[in-house]
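Annotated sample (chain length 627).
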Amino acid sequence: MFLIEEELKKLPGKPGVYIMHDARDEIIYVGKAVSLKNRVRQYFQSSRNKGVKIEQMVTHIARFEYIVTDSELEALVLESNLIKEHRPKYNTMLKDDKSYPFIKVTLNEAYPRVLFARQMKKDKCKYYGPYTSSAAVKDVIELVRRLYKVRSCSRSLPQDFGKERPCLYYHMKQCTAPCTGTVSEEEYRGRVDEVIRFLNGDFQETVDQLTEKMQQASEELRFEEAMEYRDLINNIRRIGERQKITSYGEEDKDVIAAAMDESDDLRDQEAVVQVFFVRGGKLIGREHFYLRVARGDNKKTVLDSFMKQYYAGTPFIPREIMLQTEVEDPELLEQWLTARRGQKVHIHVPKKGSKEKLVELAAENARMVLDKDRERIRREEGRTIGAVHEVEEWLQLPGINRMEAYDISNISGFESVGSMVVYEKGKPKRSDYRKFKIRSVEGPNDYASMEEVLTRRFTHDSKGEFDSFERKPDLILMDGGRGQVNICLGVLEKLHLDIPVCGMVKDDHHRTRGLYYNNVEIPIDTTSEGFRLITRIQDEAHRFAIEFHRSLRSKDQVHSILDDIPGIGENRRKALMRRFRTLEAIRDASLEELADTESMNARSAQQVYDFFHKKDETIEERKETQE
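Output written by the structure step:
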């Protein structure tokens, strides 16, 4: 038994991270401390003014644990990682884990490529960005390939010279096809050097060349071609306005400000953080981020939490960060960001002049985004958390967070499969979805199949706290009425588990009409958000099972006929299908035709011929089953 007063006495006076758990052993808060002994004790001292959020959180703490570190900086890094991993309820959480794209020139290859990249690595490649728009990056890459005809394939050159025919880009005149071995490394590198000059901002030579081609095409009355050149010139000029090479020596800044919704009709506050990206003295873009904020937090707390989560995930850190207000431990944040960047990072709050106006502009934009999206936030709240609350009221079952739903799919008992879908706080948690291939049931027996699925789910040996099977649901939803519910209750009783089970009852038109719970069918309002949530869960479980079943049927149709023939591997199977197109054509082919097929020899042709002609009856049976 965990006795909080006793455990508080054992806390060390060292830096580290503390982790708060509730009665269900879920992590509800993660924090860092210079002295664990002093910091954690403060939560349980009644004389301190802790604020609304902390007072509420303390009432839910059942136990705590801690990790000692060598320094406060190590504690900050560990805190950031744990918050991102566990997403605790009482931590201010960044809702959008965005990463910003780069253009990558693979100078570490003999024949470099121009690629889309999400991370900047130390791999001897050249990176341009970051960009605020993936579409902008793709536009630049496409334009570069059209202009300079550099390759986009993943072939390893020069090792793969001549192994395959040139791809479609060569025939579209968008690649010089170095894969053929007819383009020297020096000639190709010349094109790459032009690409680098282009990405560095040296556009004028390219614009002059395109202008000359445009005028020539126009004089020769090739107006469509002239329009293409005109559009290319316009694209280049637009790109030139927003594009800068990433260089740690340039004066780059991020400007960060927040706006908070302080209304009382939401369980948690909403906040928007606006980031302006200033690169080389130019404002090249902006982005906003939504955060879930516990009641009682202020802008200082919001900005502090945002910076830890945002800069832990973005590959580029500027030299200067301008903030709307001071944050906790700015010196420690500077130290951490400096270590990540490799050069000194400055954090400050401008008090006057153009810098202060830029921060005010970021704050105004954050407020506008929050005002514009307030209705969307409320609608989303109603579709998810609000819908869950309606289900709680119908069943008189408070505290529903995680719901699991199950379904069985088969065609006349062939390849029966089961699906498990998971919803948390009214939203699908797809990383926890699971598929089951029925092992012990012959024929179309949905009840027996469901019993196997549930037994395997609740007796599964978990691989750790991040395994989907580790966490038990607050409510199980069965796609059916009394029969399916009783199957589930029987499994839970055998395993000594106490989990509420509810059936989703359908009418004669296969539409949900009510919930079956505690031997009673509960009618539900078909216009409510709770009804729509139940319908979405039911449809999702059905869709997930059908997709799995369809994939198994598809694999079996290929495997059961050709891959069962001795000596016929993947290459020969593909060669047969390329030539004959259908299984019937392969079966009807003569021995000579089979032997004349690419990758085939006399022995393998004989094996295919014998397989189809000696086992016609078996083949037909298999095909009928698949159909």
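Annotation: The two ends are 59 Å apart (CA to CA).
Annotation: Residues 242-250, 615-627 have pLDDT under 50 and may be disordered.
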